[in-house]
TrEMBL record:
Protein name: Transmembrane protein
Key words of the record: Membrane, Transmembrane, Transmembrane helix
Origin species: Cryptosporidium parvum (strain Iowa II)
Transmembrane stretches, start-end: 94-114, 126-144, 175-199, 230-257
């Protein structure tokens, strides 16, 4: 196939039906501008569809390409441009608003919880419910945004994509731990980190320079924040649930919920895996140092549990 034929195929390609392209585009950061998007499309098309496509158009073909692209893409884009604008100004802005409100409220709740007058009050309960509701709406909107359209709930492809999304796990955490949030509002740290990076992904919709600078700072420390979130999920939440169950403050069911969520994340989340490796190293080191004082069945029991933690 000649480069000209590859160019024609590129112009006629239906991007809306390509799952691979949608996954590639959703993982781009920062979101490319309109002028950059064509270059990304050409590189992706050359790698995944037709290697004969020229990434950089020759100068004498540029004007011809501009005219061809206008007419060839008109039929496929004309119907979708209006809906995309509506989505940008509609549910995407609603998603950003929902997550931003949740971030604001959930950052205030732990502070208010230290005040004796407000701790455990109806006002705190109201804030927890509002924040949880907006997290659910915002994270749900994000999952809709990145899902393959049209959405087919019984499709294996749909669930294969959703089950590995961080926003899905954060959404499940808000719902599953809802009963714990009143007494331990720091649980909001889990969806807060996820929401922060979701909102930062849509910076073109956010026009405030100060907010954008905050997002840029967060993105520079993205791996550190995700690792701290993993430590928090594995250790802080786990220890709190364990002692809360022992003191009969919460139901023993939460241990099962906690372990199920961790098992769900462990195979796909490298930060959770690293947190477990650190914990395993520390515990083994402690047991070796104090082996003369620790009954033998404890190390054996721990080794059995750790070897089967994801099975």
């Amino acid at each position: 196939m000649t480069p000209e034929e590859a160019q024609k195929e590129f112009l006629e390609y239906d991007w809306s039906k390509s799952t691979l392209w949608q996954q590639y585009y959703n993982n781009l950061y920062p979101t490319p501008s309109a002028s950059q998007l064509t270059t990304f499309k050409r590189k992706w098309f050359k790698k995944n569809v037709n290697p004969n496509l020229e990434i950089q158009l020759k100068e004498h073909n540029y004007n011809k390409y501009q005219e061809e692209s206008k007419f060839s893409s008109f039929n496929s884009q004309a119907k979708s441009n209006e809906s995309k604008l509506l989505l940008s100004t509609g549910y995407k802005q609603w998603m950003i608003l929902s997550l931003s409100i949740s971030l604001l409220i959930s950052s205030i709740i732990p502070i208010l919880n230290f005040l004796p007058i407000i701790r455990g009050s109806k006002f705190t309960y109201l804030l927890v419910r509002i924040s949880s509701l907006f997290y659910i709406l915002g994270l749900g909107s994000h999952l809709y945004d990145i899902s393959i359209k049209p959405i087919k709930l019984l499709s294996i492809d749909f669930w294969q994509k959703i089950l590995i999304e961080e926003s899905f796990h954060s959404l499940i955490s808000v719902v599953a731990y809802f009963g714990l949030i009143y007494s331990f509002p720091m649980i909001f740290f889990i969806p807060a980190i996820t929401s922060l990076f979701i909102v930062s992904k849509y910076q073109p919709i956010v026009n405030n320079i100060q907010i954008i600078n905050i997002f840029d700072l967060a993105n520079k420390n993205k791996n550190k924040l995700y690792q701290r979130k993993a430590y928090f999920e594995v250790f802080v939440v786990g220890i709190y649930i364990f002692f809360a169950v022992l003191t009969r403050r919460i139901s023993i069911v939460y241990i099962s919920i906690y372990w199920s969520l961790i098992r769900l994340k462990y195979p796909i989340d490298p930060f959770v895996q690293y947190a477990f490796r650190v914990a395993n190293s520390q515990i083994n080191g402690f047991m070796k140092s104090y082996s003369n004082y620790i009954p033998g069945f404890i190390p054996r029991s721990y080794n059995w549990v750790s070897s089967n933690k994801v099975n």
